[in-house]
Amino acid sequence: MEAILEATTRILRQDGLAAVNTNRVAELAGVSVGSLYQYFPSREAILAELVRRLRLSMSGRLAAASRAMQTRPLTEAIPVMMAAAVHAYETEPRLTAALEEAEARLPRDPDVMAGRRAVKEAMIACLGRHGFTDPGEAAMDIVAMTRGIVMASIAGGPPDFASVRRRIERAALGYLEGCPRVGQSPSLA
Amino acid sequence: MEAILEATTRILRQDGLAAVNTNRVAELAGVSVGSLYQYFPSREAILAELVRRLRLSMSGRLAAASRAMQTRPLTEAIPVMMAAAVHAYETEPRLTAALEEAEARLPRDPDVMAGRRAVKEAMIACLGRHGFTDPGEAAMDIVAMTRGIVMASIAGGPPDFASVRRRIERAALGYLEGCPRVGQSPSLA
Amino acid sequence: MEAILEATTRILRQDGLAAVNTNRVAELAGVSVGSLYQYFPSREAILAELVRRLRLSMSGRLAAASRAMQTRPLTEAIPVMMAAAVHAYETEPRLTAALEEAEARLPRDPDVMAGRRAVKEAMIACLGRHGFTDPGEAAMDIVAMTRGIVMASIAGGPPDFASVRRRIERAALGYLEGCPRVGQSPSLA
Amino acid sequence: MEAILEATTRILRQDGLAAVNTNRVAELAGVSVGSLYQYFPSREAILAELVRRLRLSMSGRLAAASRAMQTRPLTEAIPVMMAAAVHAYETEPRLTAALEEAEARLPRDPDVMAGRRAVKEAMIACLGRHGFTDPGEAAMDIVAMTRGIVMASIAGGPPDFASVRRRIERAALGYLEGCPRVGQSPSLA
DNA sequence: GATGAATGAGGATTCATTCAT
DNA sequence: GATGAATGAATCCTCATTCAT
User: What is the DSSP string of D115-175?
Assistant: First the structure.
């Protein structure tokens, strides 16, 4: 079972979503197609599981960052949050992109939705502490901007992730600067 | 020929890229498969043509906006630019998303690349006029952020585009606020 | 009409029988498919006409050689006959091979059969004059051997036709040496 | 797998190469198209395997004949060699012709080339023992003549193979009579 | 007569899934 | 539980032929 997921991961990383077919996965995993179907009811189910794990690890990482930054000023928290958000893209760009592609094709999975929500919650928690009026909207946008910049950066071969992170921080902080807050101090710090 | 493109467009809009197959396109277009292949050498060619048209219209729209805003302050130019950039997503969210997916799968097409470059050039032209040190990077990031926010907004059903546009402007202006400029005035206006 | 045959010939020569399709022929001939079908009822008919012409030219050439050698000894006649038989392969190896392939696929055509018969008759006339008991059989075999050697020689790129001709003469004369004759002289000359 | 080859063989024998298509083969073999593709990667591969087997059996038969005739005079060896060379055409004329046609269309296969070479080598071994100056050329020509006569005999329905063999022997011996040899005796025996 | 757009049956190939062993 | 051979619907594409203009 782990072998099946591992094999799928490898194919996703190397040749993308379209190259994932049950026969190839089974062969690479060293099991038979029959066994594959014993553990997963369908090809989709394998991908769904992988997507679930990705979302879980992402949300876990962001939640941890959010907790760690609980008492820190925004200018310090945002870079840490952004690093957490970008982590998967940075370490596994092709795999992550392929899994996001898979996620888009798959029917809505509750666990995946929960993971996405958790990512947002972590951001919301972080932003809420700093008095933003609509932390949900801001969280969603920041995550979306981040994904946008990272995906575009990846598209042209492996990018300089230091630069990517710097620009993401700039985008996030810039965006937040324009967001309405209750009783805010003039600076974000 | 237009009928074929129209049929493909309809399928793309309704059921996404995976649902586009030559038989269905031909049927919906009211022609035979043979005729389809008389006008397009392959399934890919149909999609390529549609992608090309999308890129062309996008770049045209942005170039026009850039020209129109030539002498205006950034705070006025950015909203106009952003509206132009988002137009396709706003009017045809599912179709546009499907075509972007198609674009990713298709081999690099010179016209499409030119279209993409033109979009960036329009942004660069606009930003360059306001003294940004690296307008290319800023242009790429703003376009990427924009796409990110729009795609995320679309994902959960048809969004309130007025809100989307407002947030995109906020993101773009916020990002630019943090960008290095030569001899810049303290404000963006 | 000649243009159609000419175009077909060109395709046959360059890309072989499988590459002959009505659209390509029409295009290369500079006419429309419709016109093509005005002159020839089917794709096969075009090929049949070409095969017919090949057989006609072959039989004409051999008949002429046979007539010219009417009063000459076999050792002189055979080289001339062989040269005539091989002429088409020598000048148009690819085209001739392609047409023989076509002939094999086509339904028996009376004209083509007549041409084949005429080739045989020319050989028979030549051999009959020299007292062979079964000139028909000998003629058929000599023609067949000739084709065999030529086709095999051609298979490995353009051969040295001087050598090919010499070997064919050797084969033909050697074969005839072993054939029963009525009142034959001990030598073939 | 054997069933697939058997079905293909049957179609080849009955209706020739053009009639071989994967659907028909699968149906006649009593398997699904999917199964066919489990055993053979393509239509060509099926034909290639059949061609390979034909070449193998031909070369095996000729090599055996060559070995058996190692110490016998040419006049005795040639009939045996010719019988071996013609065997496939004699027992399966239509199938053999169809497979040779297939071979011509298929990309060069190393095994098939080896088989062809082996056929020639067997002839060369046999001829070399009798002092022919250029046994390679003679071998090629004799094989080619043989094929030529057999194919032509076959063309007009199933021939009298006793007669065919006799004529092939005559052709081979006659050809060899005219070939240069080192220190040869006046007769071929 | 000429045109060439339209037709659609036919053919090769893929791959998710099943099920007898 | 495991296996992997078998399935066949689905898909892309070709090309001989027709027929309205």
Answer: HHHHHHHHHHHHHHTTTBS-HHHHHHHHHHHHHHHHHHHHHTSS--HHHHHHHHHHHHHHH
